[in-house]
Amino acid sequence: MTVDTSFGSDNHAGIHPRILEAITEANSGPAIAYGADAHTAAAVAKFREHFGKNADVYFVFNGTGANIIALTTLARPFNAVICSEYAHINADECGAPENFCGCKLKTIHAPDGKITIDDISRQLQGRLDQHRVQPSVVSITQASELGTVYSAAEVREIAAFCHGHGLFLHMDGARICNAAASLGTGLGDVSSRLGVDILSFGGTKNGLLLGEAVVCFNPELSKNTIFIRKQAMQLASKMRFIAAQFTALLSDDLWLQNAAHANRMAQMLAEKIKSIPGLEIIQPVQSNAVFASLPRPAIDKLLKKYFFYIWDEEKNEVRWMTSFSTTEEEIDRFAAAIRESCK
Fold first, then answer.
1. What is the pTM for the complete model shown?
2. CB-hemisphere CA count at 13 Å for 5?
3. Within this chain, do residues 267 and 176 fall inside the same structural domain, yes or no?
């Protein structure tokens, strides 16, 4: 489907010009393959500026690969991963975590996309019972799949609970830049400094061509991750082209500029449509997503002109995503179209 403007996903945006320039600059002469090059070393150094000197960084192709590698680093096949029912690892990865990691996912009903320590504690029954899977990892998504953002206090509380109960904490940070921008903090302030053990760091949704990173904050935990990445078919031979993008993203606050703009566009959209009769915004707009319910005829009218996803067919709930490249003019036109469709 060809569209002029899409509110389906921040993945639909193109490449940020500075990222594209970084790829071009990296395309100069030969470089040793599989990450033994200066571009990869520079990118790892940038990650350590944000997340601490002990950050262990593994570049991969995509988010599913990052999540699989992170979970396989922390869990054995007899373990379980506790997560929200909306977690990408549960709802949108085609069973990849179960297939490659071999773990069972134990899901929590999370109406706002976020899980709590009370939710987690209820999943810990049967520990040390040889007949049951043994919870090993808690996975949270920041920002969540419903666009909500865990506060620093919430993440710290979950991390402390996990470590007090012998669990690891994984963060799916496909939109960690949007979360940090929303909270007005640095990237480490929403992850490594709060007790997160391992992070799937997202780049594609914030201006990259392709590429994500697995970032482990305790190198003792990730001593086998280099082999797991290879087995998972996520080791890039020409890694410099993934790494160079991250160097650009993590320099001069480009990550923050892109994410803050995307967040602001979502807030602008929500403000313009919140008073439309028959429309209800159903989640707090804390990152770059607007979740709303509106009459099905209105949805069908909009889909003829714009691409977006229906989140819940039964409830007529939709998801509208903005990106670093969304413009105010596009928001104005889309808001007007939404208002017209609801008449």
1. 0.96
2. 18
3. no
Q: Where are the beta strands (DSSP E) in 271-331?
A: 280-281, 289-293, 309-312, 317-321
CA-wise closest residue to 78 among 42, 40, 126, 121: 126
CATH number of domain containing 169: 3.40.640.10
Q: Is 282 a member of any domain?
A: yes
For the stretch 125-134, contacts whose Cβ atoms lie closer than 8 Å and that sit 24 or more positions apart, written own/partner, are: 133/78, 133/79, 133/80, 133/103, 133/104, 133/106, 134/78, 134/79, 134/80
CA distances from 305 to 162, 275, 296, 333 (A): 46, 22, 15, 11
Judge if 316 and 175 occupy the same domain: no
pLDDT tens, position by position, for the chain (343 residues)?
556 689 999 999 999 999 999 999 999 999 999 999 999 999 999 999 999 999 999 999 999 999 999 999 999 999 999 999 999 999 999 999 999 999 999 999 999 999 999 999 999 988 889 999 999 999 999 999 999 999 999 999 999 999 999 999 999 999 999 999 999 999 999 999 999 999 999 999 999 999 999 999 999 999 999 999 999 999 999 999 999 999 999 999 999 999 999 999 999 999 999 999 999 999 999 999 999 999 999 999 999 999 999 999 999 999 999 999 999 999 999 999 999 999 9
Same domain, 182 and 293: no
Nearest to 250 by CA among 303, 207, 293, 292: 207
Residues 288 and 335 in one domain: yes
Phi, psi of 60 (to 5 degrees): -135, 175
Residues 203 and 315 in one domain: no
Helix (H, G, I), strand (E, B) or coil at 114: coil
**4 located within any domain:** no
Eight-state DSSP code of residue 204: G
Which residues have C-beta within 8 Å of that of residue 209, sequence separation ≥ 6?
15, 19, 20, 23, 245
7 belongs to a structural domain: no
The answer to whether 154 and 140 are in contact (CB under 8 A) is no
